[in-house]
Amino acid sequence: MKAFILAAGRGERMRPLTDHTPKPLLMAGGKPLIVWHLERLAAAGFREVVINHAHLGERIEAALGDGSRWGLQIRYSPEPPGALETAGGIANALPLLGSEAFLVVNGDVYCAFDFGRFSRSTLGPAAVSMVAAFAHLVMVDNPDHHAGGDFSLDGERVIYANSEQTLTYAGIGIFSPAFFTNVTPGTVMKLRPLLDAAIAAGTLTGERFAGRWVDVGTPQRLAELDLELRDQELKNA
Q1: Which entry of 18, 76, 84, 194 is 20 to 30 Å from 54 by CA?
Q2: What's the predicted TM-score (pTM) here?
C-alpha cells in the first residue's frame, strides 16, 4: 500500500512562520512535522510515499529528497499556486498512487496512530473490508477549537453528526482510487462533498482513535507540541 501526504496548504493561520517555510517543514520536537509521519510510515512497513505541494514546494523536495534516508521512495505531485484542495490534490496525484487503495495523511497533524494497521504487511480481514468500502476515516475526540466535530459513528458506519456524540476527522484515512472517479484532475475541490455522498450512500466507514493527536493549526499549538515532544525526549533519555 502507498501513502499520500497532503502538504500543499498555504498555512495562513501559521503566518508569519509559513511566509518562508512550508507548514509541513515547521519544527516540533527537533524535527519537521512531516518527518514524524515519514518515520512512522517507514516503521509501519510502507515503502512508497507520494507528497503533494504548492506553497514553497521546492523547499519540501529539497528537504526530503527521494526519501532514501528513511528507507522510503518519495515521489512528488506539484500543484499550481493556491493548490487544489484535498480531493483535487488527491485526484491530481492518482497516476502516482496506482490502482490500489492508499493511505492519506494530512501533513499538518501530529498523530501517534499506528499506520502499520493499514500497511500491506499487516492487512487483516477487517482492514480488507475497510478498503472494499472505498473510504475509511480515522476520527478523534473533538478538540477544543473544533468542539462541534464533523461526523458521528454508528458502529463502523460514518453518519452525519448527531446530538449524541460527534467526532473530528483526524486527517487520516484509507481511500480507493474509485472514490475520486468523478473528480477531474486539475479541479479545485474539497473532500467534504465526496464524504457526504458516501454517507448518503451508506458506504463510508470509520473508527475512533483515542491516542495522541494534534491539529497543528496555529503558532500556539505548534509551540505547545514542540514543548511536549522535547519534554518527552528528556524523560526518555
Answers
A1: 194
A2: 0.91
